[in-house]
Amino acid sequence: MAPTPRLVAIRHGQTEWSKSGQYTGSTDLPLTEDGVEEMRTAGLSIFQKNNLISPERVTYIVVSPRTRAQQTMNLMLESVPEERKKHIKVIVDEDVREWEYGDYEGRLTSEIIELRKSRGLDKERPWLIWRDGCENGESSEQFGFRLSRAIQRIRQLHKISHEKNEAADILLFAHGHSIRYLSALWFGLGVEKECSEEQKKEVVHRYDNNGELIPDVHMETYSHMVSNPNFLLCPGGMVVLGYSHGCLDEPALELSGAFIPQNSICLT
Amino acid sequence: MAPTPRLVAIRHGQTEWSKSGQYTGSTDLPLTEDGVEEMRTAGLSIFQKNNLISPERVTYIVVSPRTRAQQTMNLMLESVPEERKKHIKVIVDEDVREWEYGDYEGRLTSEIIELRKSRGLDKERPWLIWRDGCENGESSEQFGFRLSRAIQRIRQLHKISHEKNEAADILLFAHGHSIRYLSALWFGLGVEKECSEEQKKEVVHRYDNNGELIPDVHMETYSHMVSNPNFLLCPGGMVVLGYSHGCLDEPALELSGAFIPQNSICLT
User: Fold this and answer.
1) B41 neighbors B267 (Cβ within 8 angstroms)
2) Per-residue pLDDT at B213
3) Which residues of B are catalytic?
4) Do B52 and A179 make contact, defined as CB atoms within 8 angstroms?
5) How far apart are alpha carbons A218 and A137 in whole angstroms?
6) Which CATH number fits domain A6-253: 3.40.50.1240, 1.10.287.110, 3.90.550.10, 3.20.20.10?
């Protein structure tokens, strides 16, 4: 029997702004030299030295349109044999791009807090991006909606492979907020909301399944956060999202990340 | 400045019952031969080959009284130099032992479901251990109370080291349910409840701090789960619990587990 499908989400490596703590949404920065070196080493470690991810099991890569995510992907894939790489389909997905920070783009948390204060905001409680979102950028509901849509698509790809009894590790290269947010929604955090009539019309874009179109997905509901999920995720950090009991109706978070004993049988 | 304190929680290696899926609470089973081999390799990988945990930073080990947890600890510590081991204080803590399964000890999930059905239970909704607990064993409230107490103690040790500007990785060797439950409470899942007058009298037992008694901790509230946190954790799996922004008031879950790029600066 094929192993249970997984989604392995990898945050891009270090940039000048991840180093300084500046919010980086649509600004298209490359990795620093340290970031390049680190992600190359990470690829070697994960695909070869420790064999934490078997390249044979990777079916799709979903990647943010931003340079830093794509560069991270390319550096890590240097450790995957050329022959194998041909079989992995790469999908650039706008839905997994970073939070649109609007007025807060390029700023530090302390600067954002001051800016909001000067605009008369946050008099009763401190700013929380997970609840309050970004002025002239995305609200938490908007961010949650598009990440819920990305999750639906990925689960559909998992389902198709699972029904064929094929392994399906999907890799996701994205960002600090988008991965933490998506991870939280994946294993059931956040609040569920019915889609508006307009949102219902937005069919979940099809991912092309090796030439065959996969069936459309319609969403009746989506989820979004109203509080901080309290996660740590460094540049280059890697999250493993899977399913309990090998059952695709039971999405779960792998608490150990990718570093788990090779022969363990997981019944939890 | 010393790195932010962490709690690294390690589930014991494979036993005959973790292999078969039988609930193992107080039953005192040893590891299987595969389990022994795997945990020895894991120790080598974590402390030496990949240097995921620096033995120099480990201050305390908190371990369940059960053989399988202690055996796992000893196998992994084979990869820590003798000289360094002398400086690590080992605390056997009843509060981190596995859930007391009561009537369900040694049984499979399917058998428990049948047993409960034969007793007229679960007519309206299926059994959920995280909410319904175990007959003649511990309720979820009871389990949550003692794990909250263990968390308070560990945070106190972190605080003492942090104030002295000393590194403090604490290792915890425990069990599938106790680690998943403790992890969920660590980063804020579950519901908070006021301690009863009796519970308030139960001072959090002191851990001896290298000969000096550390101050008592009193708990006004504790937390417990009412739903499944949806975590995967295999035998030998390892969870990293820390704090956001280096701030001990912001407990958080490391989404990547122990496998994070060595030079990353984490600002999230």
Assistant:
1) no
2) 56
3) 12, 98
4) no
5) 26
6) 3.40.50.1240
